[in-house]
Amino acid sequence: MSSTGMCSRREADKYIEAGRVTINGTVAIKGNRVLPGDTVIFDGEPVINKTKLIYLALNKPPGITCTTDLKDPDNIIDFINHPQRIFPIGRLDKPSSGLILLTNDGDIVNQILREENQHEKEYIVHVNKPITPAFVERMSQPIPMLGTKTKKCKVVQLKEKTFKITLTQGLNRQIRRMCEFCDYKVVSLKRVRIMHLNIDNLRLGSWKYLSDQELSELRQRLKTSSK
Asked: Which residue has the higher pLDDT, 71 or 223?
């Protein structure tokens, strides 16, 4: 209710405690979750979220933390300083740079992130020593990590110490752990693509709203994606 702009959170709590709010015909209690498709009624009138949906892309610099915790002095929310409440879709670890999406649309987060939806993310990685054919082959195959294994992925050498890797997973520090398993160390890591969205000419530290064309294609690609 507060996210629609109709009242504050404190006021919403009071309305709920007074029994003035229902969810799908049942009197609401504090802590109830509202899911897509649910009907919320306040004093006999439907609650409609009129908040404008926001979708933006940031070229995150190293040193910024992908957290909404404002106690973190390097949090991504203060860095962008957007007037509306938004949150990152997934994360890039603090030392890494590159493309990250932010939104206030909670419906699309899992659709983009869930590995079974097979949405690609592409990275350019610079390592501490020359890359060998054996390294490229091993990195492209499943690697044990965090009680599971990585999925097969595409790895292409670009320069002596630089390679491109395309993932559909998002395990914690996945690329860095994969490199460590192969006895390499990541010097720099940059995400350059999420699905069809590329970092293009977006300067480091800058952000932009997704274009109508980018949004249209994003929605089309997410139509069959599980939430």
From this structure: 71
CATH number at residue 100: 3.30.70.580
Q: Which two tokens stand for residue 80?
A: 């962008």
Per the CB < 8 A criterion, the answer to whether 138 and 157 are in contact is no
41 and 19 inside one domain:
yes
Q: Which domain holds residue 176?
A: 120-194
Checking if the pLDDT of 2 tops 80, the result is: no
- Do 145 and 164 fall within a single domain? yes
- Tally the domains of the chain: 3
Q: What is the DSSP string of 99-166?
A: EEEEES-GGGHHHHH-GGG---EEEEEEESS---HHHHHHHHS--EETTEEPPP-EEEEEETTEEEEE
What is the three-class DSSP state of 210?
Answer: coil
pLDDT digits (tens, 9 = 90+) for 96-122: 999 999 998 877 888 888 878 889 999
Q: Mind telling me the catalytic residues?
A: 93
Encode pLDDT of 64-95 as tens digits. Answer: 999 999 999 999 999 999 988 889 999 999 99
The answer to whether position 39 is within a domain reads yes
What is the CB-side half-sphere exposure of residue 10 using CA atoms within 13 A? Answer: 0
Residue 55 has pLDDT above 90, yes or no: yes
Whole-model pTM: value is 0.79
